[in-house]
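dumping this here so i dont lose it
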């Protein structure tokens, strides 16, 4: 077994995400210092190209063309889904604690009380912890199980992975400057780092818990269990080609940020899947070879659902992020321009793929630690 096959897909992905944009900037002759300041913290809006109807329409058509086949297939198949399914259990008691935490944190996040002033900027973390508890409890009510109860070690492992993973996105945002933060003027860089790391740690648990809840609604992915079969004859060759294209695109985001900003959301998923394919590891796209798109669709929807809540709760928080995106910065829902929500679809799939990597790593650890015989 060679060195490449022993490598971790996540470490290889991190190396590419960090190195490729820097390589592109270096080859263009621009200074690297602005991108190397740590921790990544974007506080100033970028001067982006103005709104463009042709670009906006092109994005809208691309989004519609990629999602319409799924929506139409689901709409046709919904009539065959059995009606009148009942929950197996009552809403668990601990779920009510999650609801209470969510509502209390939401109220405190959007209101300014003197007694809560010192903790005001930290309200996002309990808000999302309450969300994860509530969604997990709903999943238990519908299906009798949830990741939080069935796989607590996995959910715990997702916390540091989630924080590190989102810091990589903050680093990539330095090159495209799609969003910046306000309401953190009183913080120095390291205070912001510690304040931000806690809510960043809730990203993966939230998306995976949401995907599991969505999977308990068969009508949401009706007809996708036996849909289009995509099984390339030479998958590793295709993976190498896509990896090369995604790598070039990511290397160019520092020099062409206004034209390639969307790659921030697409390239990490493509890189991870291609790395896994080249290492002969299972990928999140594997079921598609048999025509099963349900898990992929549920993951994308989970990213979109969480994205809507992120943008909603951001709107009234003290510390916020604001967007400035080239060509499509109009028709906002909360702070996000409407086309921007499409980025949450591949983002949701990436989150689930990262969760599967963490699950596989935990399985290998248990196997190694298990006594022989």
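and the seq i came up w/
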């Amino acid at each position: 077994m060679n060195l490449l096959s022993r490598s971790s897909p996540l470490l290889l992905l991190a190396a590419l995400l960090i190195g490729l944009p820097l390589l592109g900037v270096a080859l263009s002759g621009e200074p690297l210092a602005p991108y190397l300041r740590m921790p990544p913290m974007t506080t100033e809006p970028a001067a982006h190209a103005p709104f463009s109807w042709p670009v906006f329409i092109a994005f809208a058509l691309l989004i519609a063309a990629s999602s319409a086949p799924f929506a139409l297939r689901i709409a046709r198949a919904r009539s065959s889904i059995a009606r009148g399914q009942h929950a197996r259990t009552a809403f668990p008691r601990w779920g009510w604690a999650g609801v209470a935490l969510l509502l209390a944190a939401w109220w405190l996040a959007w209101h300014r009380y003197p007694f809560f002033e010192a903790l005001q900027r930290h309200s996002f973390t309990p808000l999302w912890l309450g969300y994860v508890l509530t969604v997990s409890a709903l999943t238990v009510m519908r299906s009798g199980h949830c990741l939080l109860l069935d796989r607590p070690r996995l959910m715990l492992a997702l916390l540091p992975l989630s924080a590190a993973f989102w810091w990589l996105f903050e680093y990539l945002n330095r090159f495209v400057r799609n969003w910046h933060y306000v309401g953190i003027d009183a913080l120095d860089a390291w205070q912001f780092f510690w304040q931000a790391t806690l809510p960043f740690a809730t990203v993966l648990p939230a998306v995976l818990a949401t995907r599991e809840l969505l999977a308990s609604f068969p009508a949401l992915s009706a007809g996708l269990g036996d849909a289009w079969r995509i099984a390339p004859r030479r998958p590793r060759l295709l993976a190498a080609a896509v990896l090369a294209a995604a790598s070039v695109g990511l290397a160019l985001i520092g020099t062409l940020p206004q034209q390639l900003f969307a790659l921030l959301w697409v390239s990490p998923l493509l890189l991870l899947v291609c790395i896994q394919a080249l290492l002969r590891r299972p990928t999140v796209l594997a079921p598609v070879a048999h025509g099963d798109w349900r898990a992929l669709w549920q993951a994308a929807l989970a990213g979109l659902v969480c994205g809507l809540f992120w943008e909603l709760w951001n709107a009234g928080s003290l510390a916020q992020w604001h967007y400035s995106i080239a060509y499509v910065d109009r028709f906002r829902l909360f702070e996000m321009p409407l086309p921007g929500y499409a980025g949450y679809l591949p983002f949701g799939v990436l989150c689930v793929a990262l969760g599967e990597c963490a699950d596989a790593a935990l399985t290998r650890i248990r196997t190694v630690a298990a006594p022989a015989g």
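The chain has 15 helices and four strands.
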